[in-house]
Amino acid sequence: AGWQHSDSKWCRGHCTYFLSLTLSLTLTQQLSAQAAVEDSDQIFTELIRCIERRRSEVKELIRAQEKAQVSQAEGLLEQLKQEIAELRKRSTELEQLSHTEDHIHFLQSYQSLSSISVSSDLPSIVVCPLQYFGDVSKTVSELREKLEDFLKGEWTKISTTVNIVDVLLPPEPKTREQLLQYSCQLTLDPNTANTDLSLSKGNRKVTCTDQVQPYPDHPDRFTNRCQVLCREGLSGRCYWEVEWS
Question: What is the C-alpha separation between 100 and 93, in angstroms, rounded?
């Protein structure tokens, strides 16, 4: 029996280390990349949710402050209306009293009217809500600028980290035990076997015989050389073993 090693596109052999290794590393990189994408999506989703929560909290704070300011102003306005009405009433009574000719009645009534006091401790209110909420907008804008600057800096780090990701190739196997990790079983192609070659059941063994084998005609069959090819085609650098007897 004879085997020949060819430099053609399809190499015949027992194993292709680089092909198996490339497929393994490609799958590993794909799984690693997919995991990184999923983790990144989850982290950014949580970040967006955090920002949304803060946005809602700021909105609630502004609305609560607005409600408190409006409530305070409305309470003060109502108190002022009541006191203005009371002052107008007293002014009318004093005007009427000024026309009386009964001095005793005048003194008694004037003393009674004078006892009505106007509140002197009215609550103070800040009449500059636009400026107040303008400061809030300014603070939020500053936060946005700081966040954008921070993200720009971190994005540079992320981009650099992604770009330096490299495939760490394991050392090239040198011993037979190491090579067998990437081994694959090959079968012989009966359509290529020379008629002086006999193939075993399963097309795993070939024997050179003196009897012409009754193979059917096939365009791939060797006619001038006592050879047979593998059914599987391998490319690249290969290591293969053959039992010879």
Answer: 11
The CATH T-level fold of domain 173-244 is: Jelly Rolls (2.60.120)
Cβ neighbours for 156, distance < 8 A, ≥ 6 positions apart: none
Degrees to nearest 5, angle at CA 182 with 181 and 183: 100
pTM exceeding 0.85: no
Residue 213, token pair as written in the block: 């084998």
Burial of 239 (0-12, 13-18, 19+ CB in 10 A): middle
The residue behind tokens 């009427």 is 96
The pLDDT tens digits for 190-239 are 999 999 999 998 898 899 998 999 999 999 999 988 999 988 877 666 77
Reported in sequence order, the residue ranges of the chain that DSSP labels E, i.e. its strands, are 197-199, 206-208
DSSP line for 203-238: S--EEE-SSPP-PPP-TT--SSS----BSS-B-SS-
Question: Domain-by-domain residue ranges, the chain?
Answer: 11-127, 173-244
Contact 150, 142 (CB under 8 A): no
CA distance 86 to 79: 11
Q: Are 23 and 234 in contact, with CB atoms under 8 Å apart?
A: no
Beta carbons within 8 Å of 56's beta carbon, 6+ residues apart:
none
What tokens appear for 192 in the block? 């290529």
